[in-house]
Known about the structure:
Elements: E1 3-6, H1 10-21, E2 26-30, E3 41-44, H2 46-54, H3 58-64, E4 70-75, E5 81-86, H4 88-95, E6 100-103, H5 104-116, E7 121-124, E8 128-134, E9 137-142, E10 145-149, E11 151-154, H6 161-167, E12 173-185, E13 198-203, E14 206-213, E15 218-226, E16 238-239, H7 242-248, H8 254-261, E17 267-273, E18 284-285, E19 288-290, H9 305-321, H10 328-357, H11 361-374, H12 376-379, H13 382-385
Parallel strand pairs: 1-2, 1-11, 2-7, 4-13, 11-19
Antiparallel strand pairs: 3-6, 4-5, 8-9, 9-10, 12-15, 12-17, 13-14, 14-15, 16-17, 18-19
Helix pairs in contact: 1-5, 1-9, 2-9, 9-10
Amino acid sequence: MKTAIAGGGIGGLAAALALARSGQPVELFEKAVEFHEAGAGIQLGPNATRLLKAWGLHGALQACSFSPEQLQVRDAASGKVLSKLTLGKAMAEHYGSPYVTLHRADLHGLLLQAVRQTAAVLHTGAAVQSFWQTPHSLFLQTGQGAKDADVLVGADGLWSSSRQQLLNDGMPQLTGHLAYRALVCQAALPLHLRSQDVTAWLGRNMHAVSYPVRGGEWLNMVVFVHGAVPDDFQNWNHTANAADLKNTLAGSCTALHELLDSVTDWRLWVMHDRPPLQSASQMAQGRVALLGDAAHPMRPYLAQGAGMAIEDAAALAAALSKAALHNIPAALQRYAANRWQRNARVQARAMRNGQIFHAKGVTRWGRDVAMRLLGEKLLDMPWLYATRP
Length: 389
């Protein structure tokens, strides 16, 4: 069974690794001339790190990640702590795997290194441009010419061309939210601004998150605000205007402003997404399956975009490992049936979190009271962290 994968990001590499480990011949096609990963920090819950451990990546993950001791939620205006969730050793023992924070490029790099140690074939500068399928065959047009395959996995991200050909359901839509992202060397920060925790600051029409990456040496920061696309916005890697951010966050507490003032280089992301999945057919049809952001892009307010892509990869490999050539479409339907509802739930929960995090008025008051009273019970998510794909 020959599997072709479109896209060499985190989801595509995870799929290549999971499939190669199960003994499947794999060819991956990445349109960029070199493998790279855009973005900054990323959080991985036990549901994702459990799979990375199963793939033999526990040591590599430990070497480039950080295990924060707690998540603390603060009010952005007053700076007061609203709630805490214990992470670190306690969470690792409870769920059998740790909660970690790391740089996206480090996760991408360890997956790439692991895939290169398998028999998977990697092509760069070679996008999957189109495909044709029948019940019994599949043909691809790539940057390196025509190819035949038994399965195509569309893991080509938010703007997936694989999805467009398979579903023809339009482009992702603007969310109305902007993300300001930055990395700061902790050694350059005053002692009182350095952190070993995940901290979320919740405010009116905004929230900010900070956490350590790269073994704790760097602090990843991201601030989500409501706003229109800037007139001069060209691409994702857009230099942000720090003065605009400060004006947007006027009224926030001194501690948060001190942290923001420590950043000299902000990058701006305009956020897009899609509605939650409605059916299994949105994840697989015939011999083509979608995975990760190509299937279910989600807002980052549950920190599960990469986690769901890794889960998809494991579920896809499990489904195909039991399939014969003549029943590949049925195997891909089993994969999609197994995954779509969980992914839809995470998509919907992430959207709801955005509303809660950015609440104002009575809703904000109720949120704060609930966090103070329920504490860890509100922040912990056994339905998410304990479930296996």
